[in-house]
Amino acid sequence: MLARANDLIAAETIERWYGSLLSDRVRLTLIDRLPNGAPSQAELARAFGTSPRAMQRSLALENTTYVRVVDGTRRELAMGYLGDRRYSITDITYLLGFSGVASFTRAFRRWKARSPSEYRRGEQEG
Fold this sequence. Notes:
By secondary structure, this protein is mainly α.
């Protein structure tokens, strides 16, 4: 709960600084919705009152895609959650909206070339 509160505070700060960028608004919404599973682009477009194609074009103008925003948001949150020993790898998996630990581990290996547990151990030793 504390980590989520911190994430929301950080997200509100980001919104004040960069609120006009769609990718930042998508990130803020993802932070809130990821624990219930990653929303589809169509779901988020509906929430923003636009079409998935219009959202795709707007994100392209910012040199990004919905998939990249989701992936980047998950990666940033994962690093923060792994630094907080109160959260197990399983807790983090579901906070980030992954369907299971194996999915989270695959994504994490893609981001950091090691497993979440290895990363956590390395951070603790460093």
